[in-house]
């Protein structure tokens, strides 16, 4: 493993910002630290960079214990949120700066700068100054400046947050392509779950300083470790209740939820069941079978609001007992009036494999 965090804790006075975090990151991974604002993800990144010292625990990078190793002696480089570049220097001089400090001879420096600028597609902008560049181009200068030093690990702190939505999307693709091409291990902090899911091969989700789950984007979404993860990643309908065998009952539901046999695992105590909006089918006519009798895995309700989002429409449906369901419906057909209007009575149903059982 290239990076090992062993029981890493960081306290600021009596406040614990990072609480006993252990995780491993392999060489070549695109790893993301994800979580709500204040969860401690930036503090953990800064500890990897050597900008903060752990209160306890150990950080090992490339087999070397980082205790006492200053930032400039670590095999890491950091790209900051504000993509700080020197305004009075050309793009090429900005990228060359770190190599000059390291006294890399001029011919090698020039070759490496040219290589780094080609990588971020700025070869034609070498003589410009940062104020003659767009935000996305400036961010790429910052990337080139970090990559030119050939670190083993690139630490990225919210690298795309200063860009507007369209540019952010474009840069996401470029960042992933650059990472694949250079094969450097990327550790990226973000509070934007879409960004983490789209880019990272694995994500660590932190809440209140503690690590909740480390998993691939697909596993985080489909198999969250607990209801906090389920709630943070994407949208979900969550119900608190009790399990009896594979039947779940909740005060919020008129009818039980039937789960796949074995889905409940060894979970004991208070239980939550979650169903993602896209796993609920919505029909205007009664469906035959389970929904017809509404004995399980279904509800009858009325559309309260709808939000047309292009590819899908997101509905709030109020069931007869007042419980609100979030349901998303794919707009598969091309039509000007995709969304059903508020007040439409609908039937909701889902398969026994749709609900996830989550510890309380
Ligand atoms: P954001 O996305 O808002 O940057 P974050 O998850 O990156 O949040 P951190 O910056 O790691 O969060 O901060 C975690 C907690 O530690 C916050 O409550 C913050 O106020 C606190 N904190 C961070 N640095 C310091 C410091 N130098 N002194 C005191 N408290 C700090």
Task: Give a nutshell description of this structure.
With 360 residues, this protein is of the alpha+beta class.
Structural features, described:
The structure is a single chain. The chain has helices at 41-49, 91-101, 106-119, 135-147, 165-182, 193-199, 217-222, 227-232, 290-293; strands at residues 3-12, 15-25, 30-34, 56-61, 64-65, 76-79, 153-157, 185-190, 202-207, 210-215, 237-244, 247-249, 257-258, 271-275, 281-283, 298-308, 312-319, 324-330, 345-349, 356-359. The protein is α+β, with helices and mostly antiparallel strands and 360 residues long. It folds into two domains: 3-222, 3-Layer(aba) Sandwich (Rossmann fold); 235-358, OB fold (Dihydrolipoamide Acetyltransferase, E2P), CATH 2.40.50. A six-stranded mixed β-sheet has the order 6-7-8-3-9-10, with helices on both faces. A five-stranded antiparallel β-sheet has the order 13-12-11-14-20. β7, α5 and β8 form a beta-alpha-beta unit. α2 packs across α3, α2 runs parallel beside α4 and α3 (106-119) packs across α4 (135-147). Bound molecules: adenosine-5'-triphosphate (ATP). The site of adenosine-5'-triphosphate has 12 residues, from β2 and α1. Adenosine-5'-triphosphate binds next to β2 and α1.
């Amino acid at each position: 493993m290239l990076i090992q965090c062993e029981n890493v804790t960081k306290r600021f006075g009596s406040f614990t910002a990072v609480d006993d975090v252990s995780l491993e990151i392999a060489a070549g991974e695109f790893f993301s630290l994800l979580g709500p604002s204040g969860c401690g993800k930036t503090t953990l990144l800064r500890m990897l960079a050597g900008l903060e010292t752990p209160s306890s625990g150990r950080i090992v990078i490339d087999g070397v214990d980082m205790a006492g190793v200053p930032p400039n002696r670590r095999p890491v480089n950091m790209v900051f949120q504000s993509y700080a570049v020197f305004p009075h220097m050309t793009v090429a001089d900005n990228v060359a700066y770190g190599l000059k400090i390291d006294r890399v001879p001029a011919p090698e420096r020039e070759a490496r700068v040219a290589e780094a600028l080609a990588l971020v597609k700025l070869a034609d902008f070498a003589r410009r100054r940062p104020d003659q560049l767009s935000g996305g181009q400036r961010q790429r200068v910052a990337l080139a400046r970090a990559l030119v030093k050939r670190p083993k690990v690139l630490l990225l702190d919210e690298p795309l947050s200063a860009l507007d939505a369209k540019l952010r999307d474009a840069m996401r693709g470029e960042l992933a392509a650059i990472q694949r091409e250079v094969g450097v291990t990327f550790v990226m902090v973000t509070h934007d779950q879409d960004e983490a899911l789209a880019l990272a091969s694995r994500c660590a989700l932190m809440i209140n300083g503690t690590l909740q789950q480390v998993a691939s984007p697909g596993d985080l979404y489909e198999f969250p470790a607990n209801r906090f993860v389920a709630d943070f990643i994407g949208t979900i309908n969550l119900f608190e209740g009790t399990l009896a065998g594979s039947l779940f009952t909740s005060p919020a539901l008129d009818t039980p939820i039937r789960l796949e046999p074995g889905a409940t695992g060894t979970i004991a105590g208070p239980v939550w069941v979650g169903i993602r909006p896209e796993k609920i089918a919505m029909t205007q006519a009664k469906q035959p079978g389970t929904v017809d009798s509404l004995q399980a895995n279904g509800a009858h309700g009325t559309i309260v609001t709808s939000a047309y989002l292009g590819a899908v429409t997101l509905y709030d449906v109020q069931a007869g007992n007042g419980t609100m369901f979030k349901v998303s419906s794919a707009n598969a057909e091309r039509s000007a009036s995709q969304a059903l209007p508020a007040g439409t009575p609908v039937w909701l149903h889902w398969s026994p494999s749709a609900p996830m059982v989550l510890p309380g």
